[in-house]
Design goal:
With 302 residues, the protein is of the alpha/beta class. It is 39% helix and 25% strand. Strands 3, 4, 5, 6, 7, 10, 11 and 12 form an 8-stranded mixed sheet that branches. Strands 1-2 form a two-stranded antiparallel ribbon. The chain is rod-shaped. It starts with a helix and ends in a 7-residue tail after the last helix.
Length: 302
């Protein structure tokens, strides 16, 4: 295998026209340059230079090798730049999974930060409510919900707590409880409930468990598949729905959101990061942007 450093020295000799000139350009001694060229000739088994006056000139084989060295060294330079970009986070891929209610609320700000600071990074975004059982299939960063006070954990991943998100009742503006500062969950037992989680995921189970703690099980008169649709149904006067504050950030004008108490179901939101990617600049930037947006005041629920 050819020594790349010797190729660089040889190419400098060809371009400079003499060993002494190449030594001066490279900051080496003429003896060191001569040794590198001699070693390259032994490696290749070719005579690469002929003496010419007080300098040297490449043989036909030397000219051919010099031309090939230009290609190799240029490609090597590109590879070195690519590695430096990877190290600095200027290129590569970052995979992020998120659940629905943070998609519209948080992701635009986070993605804007990443595309501005790291335009060469390709983002792979995935809407995902569950966590893959196979660690190899998990993204570099995933936004997940967990029971309040709980911290998701998995080998080779680290969880970062972002926000505790309490639930609110969203009711029509003319509902008897619309003007209250807070609503006890039990006070909603007789209302027509609108479901808002088709996946029957943890957030829904969290709500149902809180209702059972309040002494009832809600009867869902209408089943919606997402928060915006459920909120639109409330705005149409069809019933009420209970969901996290983050999901109630954009309320229809005909509705009011009121905090629920006794009990107050709450979910915790975490960013779960692959340890192998944790120190890369894009992941650090994504975490910083998420902390910023999670720290912003949530629109008033009342």
């Amino acid at each position: 295998m050819l020594d790349v450093h010797r190729l660089r020295v040889f190419r400098s000799v060809v371009a400079s026209g003499s060993v002494a000139a190449a030594a001066a350009n490279l900051g080496y001694t003429p003896s060191a340059v001569s040794q590198h060229v001699a070693a390259l000739q032994r490696e290749t088994g070719l005579r690469l230079l002929d003496r010419h006056g007080r300098g040297v000139r490449p043989t036909a084989a030397g000219l051919a090798l010099a031309a090939e060295a230009d290609v190799v060294l240029a490609r090597l330079g590109e590879a070195e730049t690519f590695v430096a970009d990877l190290r600095a986070g200027r290129t590569g891929t970052l995979s992020i999974a998120y659940f629905a209610s943070v998609g519209a609320a948080w992701l635009p700000s986070v993605v804007r930060t990443l595309t501005t600071e790291y335009p060469g990074v390709r983002l792979e975004l995935e809407l995902r409510e569950d966590v893959a059982t196979d660690a190899a299939r998990r993204p570099d960063l995933q936004l997940v919900v967990a029971e309040w006070g709980d911290t998701p954990s998995a080998p080779r991943f680290t969880s970062h707590h972002l926000l505790d998100d309490p639930y609110v009742a969203v009711v029509p503006h003319d509902h008897p409880l619309a003007g209250r500062d807070e609503i006890e969950l039990a006070e909603l037992a007789g209302d027509r409930w609108i479901d808002n989680d088709f996946a029957r995921g943890w957030c829904r189970r969290n709500l149902l468990e809180a209702c059972r703690a309040a002494g009832f099980s809600p009867t869902f008169a209408v089943e919606a598949h997402d928060y915006p649709t459920a909120l639109a149904f409330v705005g149409a006067g069809i019933g009420i729905t209970v969901l996290p504050v983050l999901g109630a950030a954009h309320l229809p004008p005909e509705t009011v959101a009121v905090p629920t108490v006794r009990p107050t179901p709450t979910r915790s939101i975490h960013a779960v990061v692959r340890d192998a990617a944790a120190d890369t600049p894009p992941v650090r930037a994504a975490l910083s942007a998420l902390r910023d947006v999670a720290g912003c005041p949530i629109p008033s629920a009342a």
